[in-house]
Protein: Signal peptidase I
Organism: Terribacillus saccharophilus
Amino acid sequence: MAKQKNEWLDWLKALIIAVIIAVVVRMFLFAPIVVDGPSMQPTLHDNDFMIVNKISYRFGEPEQKDIIVFHATESKDYIKRVIGVPGDHVEMIDDTLYINGEIVDEPYLDSEKEALADGGNLTNDFTLEDLPGNYEEIPEGYVLVLGDNRRNSTDSRYIGLIPEDQIVGKVQLTFWPLDRIGLTK
């Protein structure tokens, strides 16, 4: 009887330790997230399941082209691509991205640009000064984000610059559906 009781206590301890480890990993290191909507197509699709690295920006800063998750409202998180970082001046002219006056290649948009049936631009022209806040350059502690589906994305063009303290983490891995499993680029 005592041996059976000790075995149950060992199992209970192991279960409690596993739950504590899972909670710590989920709260501080990594978290699963599901894409809700088409704003990041063709890179990410509605209902893709991904892993968000919550610690990447504790040791570094967001970089251009990172895909991030951030708190857009108290109850809603958005997934977007970082386009501009502190010190940058951003403008879009005739579907060409300029950062600090230099052309920046966006290969993740090539298929979408080629597929434009109406011959128009994927991204409407704008400058940083046109966005909410009327900044001349992105201030410290903020990033400018855009969705890859530029014609259907609520991003910095509408909601303004994103405070870095609202960033949840960097999207690094898609794990569902299985045919889309892989590192996120």
